Amino acid sequence: MTVIEIVTMVFFSVQQIMAPATQQVLRATALGPGSKSGHTQFFDVQAHRGGRGSTVENLLPSFAWALIDGATTLELDNGVTKDGVVVVWHDEEIQARKCQDTVPAFPGDPDFPYVGKNIANLTLAQLKTLDCGSKRQDEYPEQLTYPGTRISTLQEMFDFVGCTDPKHQILWNIESKIDAVHPNKTTSVEEFVDRQYEVFAGSAYKRFITYQSFDWRTLVEMKKRDPTITISALVDDETSYIPDGSLSPWLAGLNPFNPSTPEERALLNASTPSERVAQAARLIGANILSPSAESYVSPTSDPNLDGFSWFTTPGMVREARKLGLEVKPWTVNRLNIVDRLVEWGVDGIITDYPSVVRRWAQQRGLPVAPKYPKQRVLACLEQHMKRN
């Protein structure tokens, strides 16, 4: 049986099992806007990597400032260590431009130094020796640094945010950083999903977690484990389109840019590739489509300049909404792009500058999430940094 046949079978089986009324209940529970609980009642301003425009990324301090700045959703990335622990970090490899070695985890550790090695090949104890808070990134000159800050586990992140948010209102968008092209760089799809879901299931935030990935195989696997969890299909030029028309390894066997079999053409029947991207996301059971706002081939990052190229299109947004998907593009750091996307009907914005997009939303009369009390957040940060 081909991957397309499996996806088709799963899709239509789910449709038959779930009565329309049940589907509406699950959508309201999973996606939020209809349920009006927690932060789901607000326009979704997502703090990308905690808001790396203002604070070193994916560390406890970055999420502290996202709470202080009034983000609706905390967007973060996960890796899985050699000993099976889920950690909050974006890159598969520990990069020298972001982290620096301190001391080995134990005397004579043959893996030391750790910078340059993959998270999947390091234990949590080894990762915990790294200083990832000292280096400001050149492309984000306003970043606050927090020298000596260690990478956190996902459980430590939940514990810290729970200290500042005792009613558990904040939303989460958690990405699996798994490599569909180089499988040896990360753990397997099944292990990655199992490890993450174990932490999700034990969290008071479970009902407010969106699970996202560029590797749509992980989204299919997560839905198998828990059909009620909200999943978001990340997509861009590199993961959706192969120049020679061959199948992308990222999209769980679907090929929206070049449907080549009768089965694919029947399933992906929209008139444009961007609309077929939305159809493909729906076929794997996604609740949200999360496309790159601009194309990687765009020669400029400003839509007011000649040559700017969109990846997200009005047709993509319309098709997604017609299929019942929300649309939340990334990573949007220009308000003239925000203007256009919201005109097209998107449901949220993933940004490195959540305080700026929140201010924009306020000016437009959109409901925005409350800011968390700065004194309480920083007190919790100090407390949990000592533990970490």
From TrEMBL:
Q: What is this protein called?
A: PLC-like phosphodiesterase
Output the GO biological process annotations, alphabetical, semicolon-separated: lipid metabolic process
Q: Which InterPro entries match?
A: GP_PDE_dom, PLC-like_Pdiesterase_TIM-brl
Q: Which residues form the GP-PDE domain?
A: 43-361
Q: Tell me the classification of the organism that encodes this protein.
A: Eukaryota, Fungi, Dikarya, Basidiomycota, Agaricomycotina
Name the Gene Ontology molecular function terms of this record. Answer: phosphoric diester hydrolase activity
